[in-house]
Amino acid sequence: MWLKPAARFSLTLTLLVSTGINRAAADERKHPWLAPEAAVKVKNPVNRTPEGLKAAARLYRQNCVICHGKTGASNGPAASSLPQKPANFTDAGIMRKATDGELFWKMSTGRPPMPAWQAQLSDTQRWQLVNYIRTFAGR
Fold first, then answer.
1. 18, 71, 98, 137 - which has most CB atoms within 10 Å?
2. CB 90 within 8 A of CB 139
3. What tens-digit pLDDT sequence spans the chain (139 residues)?
4. In this structure, are 43 and 100 located in the same domain?
């Protein structure tokens, strides 16, 4: 069966994307995303303030809701199409184990499908986001 070039391109692209997604899911199971020990130990230099939380809420809505969801429950509109679920910021157990430095490092460096935000957001903005996502688990 012969396909038109556009249909052949679409089929090839679909197969490549789905293969990449499956491979990413398998990689996550084999190699959990761990921050370097030095990053884990970093303390958040930005105090939690009403102004900082308000600014971070805006950034979260603009950049994070699509995957992590409005309440941080890993149920954003794009979450179901990702190879692994985004972090669930409402899980108190997970959030208790994660240090601020670890969250900051992951947000900064990214790992597909999570983008790296280091070039788009300032250090202060990323620390404010750490403070903000902590509110989802009541901390």
1. 98
2. no
3. 454 655 554 555 454 555 554 554 455 556 799 999 999 999 999 999 999 999 999 999 999 999 999 999 999 999 999 998 999 999 999 999 999 999 999 999 999 999 999 999 999 999 999 999 999 998 6
4. yes
By the 8 A CB rule, do 128 and 52 touch? Answer: yes
Contacts of 90 (CB under 8 A, 6+ apart): 71, 72, 73, 136, 137
We report the CATH number of the domain holding residue 116 as 1.10.760.10
Residues 7 and 50 in one domain: no
Report if pTM > 0.90.
no
Domain range enclosing 21 = 1-32
Please give the Cα distance from 96 to 61 (Å, whole number). 23
